[in-house]
Amino acid sequence: MLTAMKKAAKCHPSQALQKHADLIPMLSLLAKVSVGSEIFISESLAETIAQYRALFLKLISSPIYHVRKLAAKAYERFMPFSSTYKSIVTVVDELCMHNRNCDGIHSSCLGFKENYLNGILLTLKYLLEKLKHDSENMSELKSKIPEIITVLKESVANCMIWDSCTYLNRVLCLELIEDKFNVVDTAYISSDETFKRILHVHKTLVNENLNNSFKPGLLLWAAKVVDVVVRKCYPQDLVSTWYNSYTLCSDYPDVVTSAFTSLKLRLLHDNKIDSAIKASLFIALLRVCLEITEECPTLFPLFDVMLVLMEGLKVNVVITFRELKKISVWFIGDRKNKSEYSKAALPVVTGLLSQYFAHGQCIELSTQILDFVLELSLCIKDRTDVMKYEEDFRLSAATAMHLLAPSLKAMLAEKSKEFSAEEVLKSTLEILLDVQLTLLQDEDNDVRKEAAKFVHAYTAEVNRTTMSMTVNPYASLRNLMKPDVLLTMLTVPQAMEFLWKKMHYTHDLESIKVKLSHGSHENVSITSPFDLGTNNIYNEETKIIDILGKSLLEIIKVANREERNELRKLIKYKCVEFKDDVRTVLSLLKRKESCKLIENYS
User: Is 105 helix (H, G, I), strand (E, B) or coil?
Assistant: First the structure.
């Protein structure tokens, strides 16, 4: 390998493409090798390693990017930990030499110089990543950081005066300056400087677009500049910086997405951003969202950041019912319900609905509002179907449910006296309870955990010290089915009917009877409606039936004679004889064998 690499490194430039391409398999292997500690390396082996490193430094100027990248990585892998800092100093010196030699550069040498700069920057990047694991040398590097940053900025300046494909190198320089040297606190960028950088990106993109000459890496560079200014601007300038990035680069989805991603990370990790700034930012995001009238790549990251602000940061804003309706168009309808936009839009709208109720804009429950909530509930219910939707859509439904909990409490506090509105509210509550029970039994663990948050959000009496229990799906199901919680949503007759139907929800006795009459020997035992297969955490359905049954028995105790008679009719319809004795009722509720039910049915 050493001989082959020597020949390739010395070959004529006209043969470089072919010769260097042949090295890729060898370099791929060498880039995975680690030389270990110097004290375990013999003198002869150390000489061989030094020869390899020298060849790697020659190959970092290869005309093939993949060769440059592998050579830079192999150079880092062949460098012992104790020599990493010295290697960084050596590479920075090479960069200084490169910068000095760029003055008056001839166009015939330009490609080689660019490739060499790219190789140097890649090598420096990998060495810095390695040095992060060496705290002793890392402290030594801190004193040299200002000098290295100055050299890198000179490289950026040289890139900008070259009339060629230098944007990939600009991206690497920015990444090294802004990301790899973040071991020390970097000063905030002033508002004037942030606007200047964003405007420069805008003008560059416009000019390149007019000339129809988009160079490789141009959009990567633009996205990186926007990423830096959003992450490094002063907290009080965050709203204007993001908005300027969005408006000036709105024609370039990759750049806009970078702005949203950086904004999301900043919101999650910067504790210096106060609630007033977050509220202003959310209002700006909401206004942008309302201005979008057709599907575009901006929608998904936009909804994502809005959800972060509502869910994790608890920002409060005022929203009108008209605005709610306008945003809901992104997930209402069969076609839109399965779009990527609907996945992010659904929980955002449920969170906004809770904001709508929280600010007292809903004096009473109008039919219009209840119809909207019912439609919203049906959309959430549709998402819980494991046969139609993947985990990410069902997770969206679970998030929507726990964001909807405050709305649910507000609706119950403002119950309408109109019969038609009362019926709509009843249907909505039963749908949401059904959705919650289904999500708590989802085959995906993340979906179950997200669904468990609903109970914590709804039951205000839960103590903070028991939060770990409320995010447990099984414990949440028990808490939700407690009579005192269930009866805050449903009346006694509604609760009894709901619990009884839930225990037989997915089973058609007639179809079971047909199976038996045809001599089928498969297991046709009546199971819980929550048995979703081997991935279900509730592998004993009797435990679920026991929870529902005990809740039903407790509610029966507080029911009056008329309400009990209604339950008797319901149970008689389901072919099970009702007994007043509560222990017998519980026994019947746990019964699973289909044959016994079929006998009663016939």
Answer: coil
Question: 37 by DSSP, 3-state: which?
Answer: coil
- How many Å apart are CA 417 and CA 557, to the nearest integer? 27
Query: What is the structure's pLDDT at 385?
Result: 81
- For 45-58, write each residue's pLDDT tens digit: 888 888 988 899 88
DSSP bridge partners of 189: 233
Q: Residue 362 in contact with residue 388, Cβ under 8 Å? A: no
Q: For 304-340, write each residue's pLDDT tens digit.
A: 898 888 876 667 777 888 888 888 887 765 545 567 7
Q: Structure tokens of 260?
A: 């949203």
Q: How far is CA 476 from the centre of its chain?
A: 24
Q: Cα(232)–Cα(220) distance, rounded to whole angstroms? A: 18
CA distance 322 to 382: 24
pLDDT band at 602 (very low <50, low <70, confident <90, very high): very low
Q: List, for residues 143-174, the tens digit of each pLDDT value.
A: 777 777 777 777 666 655 554 457 888 888 88
Cα(402)–Cα(452) distance, rounded to whole angstroms?
A: 8
Of 217, 189, 218, the C-alpha closest to 201 is: 218
pLDDT exceeding 70 applies to what percent of the chain? 72
pLDDT value at position 344? 83
333 dihedral zone (left: phi>0; alpha: psi -120 to 50; beta): left
The answer to whether 396 and 330 have CB atoms below 8 angstroms apart is no
3 state SS for 500-518 = HHHCCCCCCHHHHHHHHHC
Contact 377, 403 (CB under 8 A): no
Chain-centroid distance of CA 483 in Å reads: 36
Phi, psi of 233 (to 5 degrees): -75, 160
The full set of domain ranges for the chain reads: 187-298, 318-480, 491-601
Q: What does each C-alpha distance from 446 to 335, 441, 473, 537, 561 come to in angstroms?
A: 26, 11, 10, 12, 43
Answer whether 380's CB lies under 8 Å from 346's CB. Answer: yes
